[in-house]
Amino acid sequence: MQSTWENLVEYDMSESGVRPLTLRELVDMGFDLDEFLDQPLGYSQSNGTVELRERIAAIYPGARVEQIEVTNGTSEANYLVALSQLRSGDGFAMELPNYMQMPGVARSLGATVRTFRLVPDDALRATSRSRRSASRERGQDDDWEPDWDEFERAVTPDTRLLYLSNPNNPTGSVLSDESMTRIVQRCEATGTWLLSDEVYLGAEIDRPRTQSFWGMSGRVIVTSGLSKAYGIPGVRIGWIVAPQDLAERCWTQHDYLTIGPNKMSDRIARVAVEKQNRERCYARTREILARNLPIAREWIDSFGGRVTWREPQAGAIALVKCDSDVPSMEVAERVRTRQNTLIVPGSHVGLEGYLRIWIGGRDAFLREGLRRIGIELRAILGA
Q: DSSP readout, 200-212?
């Protein structure tokens, strides 16, 4: 749906990152465009140049350059892990709601897909008040945490691979330390690989930096890239951080898929992932989101409780719940056809009754996009 309409509508409110950086801004960070103009445009190193992999490895304590595989975006990173690990009859588990690439990939490889839900805090009342308070003092919130009964049914000894996103797309939530530990322990007990998509790490709005799963277990695989927290989706650079033998198996799949990243993207990425530039990108993302969050908050409040949300802790996504029985796909189609504006129905992220709306654009764009969406929601709600 997004690929079909995102370049045809007047207002694309289906995006999921902040407005992108320009090449001029990357030149200001140190990308030598003039020098690159004389570079022969041959193949680059198919698993990423040593220089880029060294700089990515430095982000993950204890990682070596041999454990890094550079890919064409985080989506290819996830795909390569699945191609290298899943076989017919394997079990595959994932959290919902989520970025919905992986269940289709797993099914195409013959795996059996099981899911478990992240549930909002009204389903977590049994959690002690003291524990919730302690979590929030550390900058954490238990607004969306796994349904543990479903989790244990989904992750069993026949589960080859577990996929999750943290920070999560589309809730913008971050798993608590306790939940991360419990997930890792379960994967170790069942012999399951844990694939943690961390492309939103660094896009935190008003909370500490999200802890990576990397280093918590030898069964952890991390994927990430430049698309979301960095704000550089167009260069299509992602990466895998994994035990060396698994990274090498992904590399063999990569050679038969897209071969490798392009030369200019690799060079740009070397600049972007340098610590000072990485922090500069993250700060830009936080600044955009901190400025936009009050605009979205005011819009939500204007519905008088008929449209609600749990504010995202990270990322440029508003996941909003509508007090209506109209299916989310029908709502999204109505917004698209009547307001020339694209949003993501909750059914496309595994959570019916919600809408995923972009909040990472410029002020005027965001306000007008929300105004258009609001026209249709008010008509549906009778508000």
A: TTT-BSSSPPPPP
Which residues face 318 on adjacent strands?
A: 357
Range list for CATH 3.90.1150.10 in the chain = 2-16+279-381
The DSSP code sequence of 50-102 is HHHHHHHHTTSTT--GGGEEEESHHHHHHHHHHHHH--TT-EEEEEESS-TTH
> In 359-379, which positions are buried (b, 16+ CB within 10 angstroms) versus exposed (e)?
bbbeeeebbbbbebbbebbee
End-to-end CA distance of the chain: 28
Q: Which CATH class is domain 23-273?
A: alpha beta
Pinpoint the residues of the chain covered by CATH 3.40.640.10: 23-273
pLDDT digits (tens, 9 = 90+) for 266-308: 999 999 999 999 999 999 999 999 999 999 999 999 999 999 9
**Is the peptide bond prior to 120 cis by the omega test (within 30 degrees of 0)?**
no
User: Is residue 145 within a helix (H) or strand (E), and if so which, with residue range?
Assistant: strand 144-146
DSSP 379: H
| Residue 163: strand, helix, or coil | strand
In tens, the pLDDT along 222-242 reads: 999 999 999 999 999 999 999
CATH architecture of 2-16+279-381: Alpha-Beta Complex (3.90)
pTM of the model: 0.94
- Per-position b or e across 292-318, b if 16+ CB within 10 A of its CB: bbeebeebbeebeebbebbbbbbbbbb
Cα(201)–Cα(198) distance, rounded to whole angstroms?
5
Give the span between the Cα atoms of 59 and 83, in whole angstroms.
Answer: 25
H or E element: which one contains 139? none
CB atoms within 10 A of CB 37: 7
Q: How far is CA 276 from the centre of its chain?
A: 23
